[in-house]
Amino acid sequence: MGEPDIARGALATMQRSYGALSIKGRLLLLAGILFLPCVGLIAYVIVSMAQSADASIRRGLSYAAQTISGAVDAELRRYIALAEVLGKSPDLSAADLSNFEAEARRVGAVSGEGWIIVSDASGRILLNTGATPGKPLGERAPEGRGSQERAFQSGRPSISDIFTGPNSGAWVATVDVPVFKDGKPFRCLSIAMPAANYTRLLAQQQLPADWLVGIMDGQGRYISRIPKNATSTGQPASAGWRATAKAEGIAEFPSIEGDRIINANARPQLSDWTVGVGIKQAAFAQAISSTVQTATIVATTICALALLLAAGIGRSIARPLESIAVKRAIPGEAAPSDPPEVRALNARLAAAEKAQAESARVIQENFGMLAQARDDASRTAGQLKLAAKYGRLGTFTWDGRSGASHWSDEIEELYGLAPGTFPGTYDAWLALVHPEDQARADRDNKQALTTGELDSEWRVPLPDGSIRWIEARARMLGGEGGGDPYMIGVNIDVTAAKEADRKRELLVHELAHRVKNSLAVVQSLAHQLLPRHDAKVRDFTSRLHALATAHTSLAENDWQGADLAALIRSQVVPFASTPDQLATSGPAILVPVELTTQLALVIHEMACNASKYGALTTPDGHVDVSWSLAQDALHVRWQESGGPPATEPPVVGFGSRLLTRTVRHLQRTFAESGLTCQFELPWLKTPGESSVAATEAG
């Protein structure tokens, strides 16, 4: 007997054995065959979940480290900005620092934590707002002096490592801003930042309780760490963390307590510090084990229920089929492997099986689409919730039919309310607005019903007595035949931006006041020290006045530039008998800050010469100034008339030298009717700048 015959005999035996099985036996066999791949699939899913949990925790560590690193940079930028503003104070260069000390103490009182230190180029402390009065200040600590030297070498602010302050005795780090005089290192302005600031910063991150978070300086010492356990500020970090401090990403090493940890590093941009976020390897493994254990219990329960259900369904199918066994008279009507009771149902079962397969395919596709839509919606909602929390904004809706508003928890927090306590009425909202802003807020909201859009802002008094600025933006939906009106929008906390604008405006006004005072002092010194009737002295004080006038024009426009027509009038009118002697024409132009002073001096010198030798020497004289703006140049024409004949001066004076050195394409015509002068100033037209229609001024 050959091998093919043996194979055919074995196949025939299997068919006979299978044919002897009843419906119940075949169902149990089918359930067993299907169960084995399901077990394998479940095992694969559990392993995938474990790997996904591992990757998710590692991503969370890296994200938390980057977030805290950004928060550290934000804290450092705040101190750097404060130090740079103080470093530009004129009082800092004075021999007596008493005026600067008063200003520094005012700024220190506003800024909260930290104090201000001024030292000379050698590191000797000249001023320390945190020191005990009368106590010798001494020298800076080595770490502070090293940071000071780096600042002088780079010409930029420097961040020191932590050290024990010689006067305060506390652990601090300093922001050091170099101050140069005549191009050489003169003084260093420093702001001491207590290490406790960064402990509070870490505590505000709301990270899981079993995570370890720390900030390490460039020398490998702890600045702050939570939970502290056996560590303290200034203590060297673990050898493993110090060895991996320069490399960002995930690393594993023993902690200072001896536990094996998985750690993610991030490097702040403004310092040589390192931020680390880690988790004990045991806690890491426990989190993954918990995920696997939960999935295993769920999978085992499902499999057991499935087997029980399969057994019950098998019995329910076999019982009625056993009672309807149909005998056929035609031999060979069914295959030998078919059970007798199924032969009569073959055709119907085949059709039903085909329809069932198609229905299962459609249902499976629908379930897949539904699951994908649910996952997308859940992910989007989570992202929006996170953005609203950290972006200090909240959302609201307004139903035009009922007049009711629905606020998110974030927007109720912005108004100082507990979640779910806003009654939803328009009057209740208006009562929360600052009384001085209620009329404008009410007008803007009602106008939005017509325009379809809301863009407004108002103040909100909070229960603690502080004031919060709210910016509202919304859009109207529906209405105009599209159903009842419906508004959706957001409220944004812009208090920080408003406070920054206020401080910037205060600094600009203070700077303008000091510059004007400086010019006034110079003018007063000139009057007191130089001959009062000397023409050169009068010219000198007149030019100082021109500079002060130009500075005033810049200050009135918030240092964005000076209006050209107003600048010309401010320099010419003081030399005229009546304002009618000056006429200006040209487009409305805002002169850039870098051109304002030199243009003011040029116009001043021409007006001064006209009052001495030209049209402004007589009441009937006139000066016409016109201008136009090209792509790269400002064209100015000065025309005098009604005065004495113009003659070329025999000696080149200051005014002529100023013109030739300041302007280009200078053309002067000395005629019987008067002087005509044309010149250009280089001009770089900014994007979006456009000329306005010409405006005539008398």
Layout of helices and strands:
Blueprint: H1 3-19, H2 23-87, H3 98-111, E1 115-120, E2 125-128, H4 142-154, E3 158-159, E4 163-164, E5 171-181, E6 184-194, H5 196-203, E7 211-216, E8 222-226, H6 239-243, E9 249-254, E10 260-266, E11 274-280, H7 281-322, H8 346-390, E12 393-399, E13 405-407, H9 409-414, H10 426-432, H11 438-451, E14 453-461, E15 467-477, E16 486-493, H12 495-529, H13 535-556, E17 562-563, H14 564-572, E18 582-587, E19 590-591, H15 593-613, E20 622-629, E21 633-641, H16 654-662, E22 664-670, E23 675-682, E24 694-697
Parallel strand pairs: 18-20
Antiparallel strand pairs: 1-2, 1-6, 3-5, 4-5, 5-6, 7-8, 7-11, 9-10, 10-11, 12-13, 12-16, 14-15, 15-16, 17-19, 18-24, 20-21, 21-23, 22-23
Helix pairs in contact: 2-7, 12-13, 13-14, 13-15, 14-15, 15-16
